[in-house]
# Entry
Amino acid sequence: MNAQQAILAIVFAILIALAAQVSMPVPGLAIPITLQTVAVLVAGAVLGTNGAGFAVVLYLLMGTLGLGVFANGASGGSTLFGPSGGYLLGFWFAAVALGYAADRGYLWRVPILLPVWMLAAHAMILVVGAGLLSFSVGAPAAWFNGVAPFLPGAIVKSVAAAILAAAIHYSLNRRTTGDRGGRYGETAEQDR
# Structure
């Protein structure tokens, strides 16, 4: 990871923290709907494996150390072991998986499929989150309280993440490749 990618990872960690504050409670549920998944998915698509993994770890570290970066300004290690802890852990898996696909160019080969990639990563967050939640409330309750209420939002947020990721990806590539396409981080000089 070069200096520019490290700076972008720090920026994305901050964006994830800010997006966590855009929160809507779901009546009867301990887990709110937030925009942080959009930031996590965009980080994965734009930063690649290492950058996205670093951004999410930095975000989780900030929250664990007491900064109010989790949903509704929550912080501390207890949040990681509470009802939403599995979803926070799922952020890392989703970001790294998308980053892996981005590093290999899979995300950009057929751009129309980018929302599908995003939805698959979103599903990963829900599976990890509900999987860990099921240990405390059981599998049926984890499904009805930790997955089903979030599916419509996951679809909408996946489409939004795809649009944002594509705009950022192509903007960064245009700057670094002299508008000749290619993967982020490759310069026109490297192509010669």
